[in-house]
Amino acid sequence: MVITRMDLFEAIASRRSIARLGEPAPDDEQLRRILAAAACAPDHGELRPFRFTVLRGPGLVAFGNVLEDAYLARCADRGVEPMAAKADKERTKLGRAPLVVVLSAVRSMSATVPWEEQVAACAAAAQNALLAATALGFGSMWRTGEVCYDGRVKTALGLRQEDAMVGFLYFGTPLPDGRVRRPRVTDLDGLVQEWIPDH
Ligand SMILES: Cc1cc2nc3c(=O)[nH]c(=O)nc-3n(C[C@H](O)[C@H](O)[C@H](O)COP(=O)(O)O)c2cc1C
């Protein structure tokens, strides 16, 4: 197992969305560490809304069929002709990494913790997972899209309609993608104010 000692600020600054990822993917122990880091996210009421569905190997390929079928069904619902290229993309897009984790938020009825905060906890979990993967030397990317709002895909994941898919987290080793990355915007212009009382 690779143990890295990346400083937290270095991990935050160096994490970038990597569109093409290959082998090696995080192994079982590395994945456990990534998901354990995710589940350490701040979680109002300790409701533990995080659910992780691991897709790899045959599962990754087969879930592509779920995404394609969902696309075809969305087209049928809307009365539009499906596009072959789009159907192909839905079926194959998970192949952009050897390991994909679907992060979902399972809704609790709580008198004190609104649903938005449960989803926010899952967003914090996603970032923890991406940073943990970065610290372990892996590339990653958080993706969403229409599939995240498709009830059929939720059902395929064993979720209820009131639950939410927060994203597809892709993990692996960065492959060259020919992209020129814009440097990060690091200034805080317009983002920060200090509130000062009138008197
Ligand atoms: C909720 C969420 C959904 C995202 N969905 C997509 C997506 O569907 N496709 C995509 O290319 N990037 C997606 N991203 C990644 C962002 O586009 C990416 O983080 C942004 O371009 C900044 O790049 P960086 O991650 O390298 O800083 C998503 C990010 C978030 C937080």
Question: Which features does this protein show?
Answer:
199 residues; alpha+beta; NADH Oxidase; globular; binds flavin mononucleotide
Summary, kept brief:
The chain is of the alpha+beta class and 199 residues long. The protein has a domain at 8-55 and 96-174: 3-Layer(aba) Sandwich (NADH Oxidase), CATH 3.40.109.10. Helices cover 38% and strands 16% of the residues.
CATH architectural group of one domain? 3-Layer(aba) Sandwich
Question: Helix coverage percent of residues?
Answer: 25-40%
Low-confidence stretches: none
Structural class: alpha+beta
Measured by DSSP, the beta-strand proportion falls in 15-25%
Average pLDDT, rounded to a whole number, is: 95
What would you give as the CATH superfamily of one domain? Answer: NADH Oxidase
> Could you please say which CATH topology of one domain applies here?
NADH Oxidase
Radius of gyration: 19 Å
CA-based shape: globular
Instruction: Count every beta strand, where a strand is a DSSP E run of 2 or more residues.
Output: 5
Largest sheet: 5 strands, antiparallel
H/I helix tally = 6
Order of helices and strands: HEHEHHEHEHE
Q: Give every kind of bound small molecule, once each.
A: flavin mononucleotide
CATH class label of one domain: Alpha Beta
Cα-to-Cα separation, first versus last residue: 58 Å
